[in-house]
């Protein structure tokens, strides 16, 4: 089975829900405790064995590029001041030379279009796709479970998790053969189903392993829900000839694209930070009464 070496991160979104914070700062650079959202997701990919990181960016996103590059002056100053721990922190997040690629989505035409923009860098091999808004916090990295499932089964994989019935219209939703299994074949996929029409309450949570044939379908650039080129529509078309598996994620998922999800993620990550958790709990208790 072809190894999954490359991961795509679509980071071109405007972040209008977080204005004015996102006027000059990309939403992916907002911090969850002490690292930007995008770094949490890149860390997940790295922990799952990804070797090449492909960012689909847009205008005003250059600080993402800077974040994953060396900061020479800072490094030298830290070294002169003997700040070894801080230097080490920066060294850990630096991708090896030549293993981060950046391409721009020139117009906000939808997730499917953003993924299609990465086609030349991905080339002819299966790849991972991680939507940075969605933080997956669990024992093992969500993408690792998916890569393991792909190594056994091949095909295409999407991470899924249950959502309340009244939220199914906000997501891509799948129907599966075996609801109880950790990995199950997908029988149906639909992007943002109208209330009462969802095939289940399992939502596509923003982690994918896709075969490169998806690019041929995305190239047709047909518009779907919300007038956007939808990835889910291309996946539905691909499912006519290839198998799709749902890999259930059992940890916690935070949609940091919403204010509530963003705040909840900060609380959850602070509570699992060894140095912060006790003082933070005490502080939160005071605030909550
Ligand atoms: C996208 C996908 C959707 C998925 C969701 C997860 O939607 O199209 O299938 O469930 O991400 O966050 P968006 O959030 O871009 O509307």
Describe this structure in words.
By secondary structure, the chain is of the alpha/beta class. The protein has one domain (6-288): Spore Coat Polysaccharide Biosynthesis Protein SpsA, Chain A, CATH 3.90.550.10. 33% of the residues lie in helices and 23% in strands. The protein has helices at residues 37-47, 62-67, 72-80, 84-93, 111-116, 119-122, 142-153, 214-218, 231-238, 259-271, 277-288, and strands at residues 6-10, 31-32, 35-36, 52-57, 100-104, 127-130, 134-137, 156-162, 172-176, 183-191, 202-210, 244-248, 252-255. Strands 8-11-9-10-12 form a five-stranded mixed barrel. Strands 2-3 form a two-stranded antiparallel sheet. A hairpin with a 6-residue loop joins strand 9 and strand 10. 38% of the residues are buried. The mean pLDDT is 95. The protein binds 1-O-phosphono-alpha-D-glucopyranose (G1P).
Helix content: 25-40%
Q: Structural class, from secondary structure content?
A: alpha/beta
By CATH reckoning, the class would read: Alpha Beta
Number of domains: 1
Q: Which fold name fills CATH's third level, the topology? A: Spore Coat Polysaccharide Biosynthesis Protein SpsA, Chain A
Number of strands: 13
Helical region count?
Answer: 11
Strand order of the largest sheet: 8-11-9-10-12
Looking at the structure, what is the overall shape? globular
What ligands does this structure carry?
Answer: 1-O-phosphono-alpha-D-glucopyranose
Rounded Rg: 19 Å
Uncertain residue segments: none
Task: Identify the CATH architecture.
Answer: Alpha-Beta Complex
User: What's the overall average pLDDT, rounded?
Assistant: 95
Helix and strand succession?
Answer: EEEHEHHHEHHEEHEEEEHHEEHH
Largest sheet, in brief, is: 5 strands, mixed, barrel
How much β-strand is present in the residues? 15-25%
CATH superfamily: Spore Coat Polysaccharide Biosynthesis Protein SpsA, Chain A
């Amino acid at each position: 089975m072809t190894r999954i070496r490359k991961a795509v991160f679509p980071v071109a979104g405007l972040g209008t829900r977080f204005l004015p914070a996102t006027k000059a700062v990309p939403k992916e650079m907002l911090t969850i405790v002490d690292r930007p959202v995008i770094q949490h997701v890149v860390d997940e990919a790295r922990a799952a064995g990804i070797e090449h990181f492909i960012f689909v960016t847009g205008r005003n996103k250059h600080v993402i590029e800077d974040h994953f590059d060396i900061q020479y002056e800072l490094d030298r100053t830290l070294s002169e001041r003997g700040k070894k721990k801080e230097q080490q922190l920066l060294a850990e997040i630096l991708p090896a030379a030549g293993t981060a690629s950046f391409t721009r989505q020139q117009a906000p035409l939808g997730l499917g279009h953003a993924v299609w923009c990465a086609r030349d860098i991905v080339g002819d091999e299966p790849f991972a796709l991680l939507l940075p808004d969605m933080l997956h916090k669990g024992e093992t990295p969500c993408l690792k479970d998916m890569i393991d499932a792909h190594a056994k089964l091949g095909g295409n994989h999407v991470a899924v998790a249950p959502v309340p019935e009244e939220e199914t219209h906000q997501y891509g939703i799948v129907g599966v053969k075996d609801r109880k299994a950790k990995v199950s074949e997908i029988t149906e996929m639909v992007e943002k189903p109208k209330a009462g029409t969802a095939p289940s309450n399992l939502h596509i949570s923003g982690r994918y392993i896709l075969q490169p044939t998806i690019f041929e379908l995305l190239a047709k650039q047909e518009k779907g829900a919300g007038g956007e080129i939808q990835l889910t529509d291309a996946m539905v078309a691909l499912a006519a000839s290839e198998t799709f598996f749902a890999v259930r994620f059992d940890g916690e998922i935070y949609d940091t694209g919403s204010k509530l999800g963003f705040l909840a993620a900060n609380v959850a990550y602070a509570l699992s930070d060894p140095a912060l958790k006790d003082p933070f709990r005490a502080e939160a208790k005071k605030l909550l009464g």
